[in-house]
Amino acid sequence: MQVEPSLLAVLLPYLAKVFRETSDRKDGQRFAPPESGDEELDNAWREGLVEEGRADRLSFLRLLERPALELGCVEVPEDEAEEALRGMTELRLFLRERGLKSVTDEDLENGRIEIPKLTPEARTAYLGYLLLAEMQERLIAEIG
Question: Which InterPro entries does its entry note (predicted)?
């Protein structure tokens, strides 16, 4: 990954902080299916989502803690790649919902963001969002 080390020095601690914030959420509430009328099925669904989300976040946390990431190297064991990708996706969604409210989906997807016009908080969220996207693309290219 070609990322300026000084940028990584700012973004990686920021992403770790955001990661901790996402860990406090209750996934079973956020990603719950429509009520089926079967309380047991609904509870099993929620518990499964919570457990899968936990595994995804742990895989991504291990990636964040790897010293090679500070040098721009995205290293994930092959058996954790999908979980790490989902963990990154969750973090990108969180950044989108919390830090990039002022940006339209269309502008975000097309990269038509005028960075100097963003607030400092939105600017950091956007750069974190871009870094995660690049990490995901690299992983997908490796496992694809």
Answer: AosR
Say if residue 45 is exposed, middle or buried (CB neighbours under 10 Å; 0-12, 13-18, 19+): middle
**Residue holding tokens 């509430």?**
29
Enter the tokens of residue 48: 């499964």
DSSP 17-80: HHHHHHHTS-HHHHTPPPP-S-HHHHHHHHHHHHHHHHHHHHHHHHHHH-GGGGGT-----GGG
Domain coordinates of the chain in residue numbers?
A: 5-143
pLDDT in the model for residue 28: 45
115 CA to centre of own chain: 20
pLDDT at 140 over 50: yes
- In the block, tokens 């092959």 appear at 78
Give residue-wise pLDDT tens across range 72-108. 888 889 999 999 999 999 999 999 999 999 999 999 8
